Amino acid sequence: MTTESPRARAKRTQILTAARTLFLQHGYARTSTDAITEAAGVSKQTLYAYYRGKAQLLSATIAQELDGLDLHGRFQPTPTTHDDLRARLLDFAHAVTGHLLQPDALALLRLLLGEAIHVPELRGALREAFPARLLGVGAHLLQDAHARGLIHAPDPALSARMFVGPVMSYVVLDGLFSPTAPHPPTDATLARLVDLFLLTVHEGAKR
Question: Which key words are in the record (predicted)?
Fold first, then answer.
């Protein structure tokens, strides 16, 4: 795997920042690659050297949003006790709801949902950049916990859906579809959500 130079990383960020700003201001369809190159101060040749086009730029925008959560870092090292696992899951729930319920993040998610409905070729890329990424990280954590005998989750992908889905319901119902300013769920609410989820995977471990 080739490691990018600091200059290349800076150029990639420069392009992505310009694209994100324009997408949020004008929408995907009304943002041209010419506008992105002008805002980023690069040539079209340079843009295509880093991103294949607008679809990949939009996918990279949400991936960048999730990078701020440091999801993999939050689950390292692998939990070795039930209390440690509970703390990791609670941290995940806090990070996702706290970050994605911010106004800028919600604006980006609304943009993504709207564009994916009208631009079919975006759907696969956005699925991999956003929900599949959250589910993949969750499944990996639960698979490791199952292997250590902390929980009973023989189908970690399904168990991840059972956990990530309720967490994301706060982003969707209390954020994307809320008529008022969003408020992240309380610590007590998320703690209860995590505890209820763990009941479903602890019961199997006791058998």
Answer: DNA-binding, Plasmid, Transcription, Transcription regulation
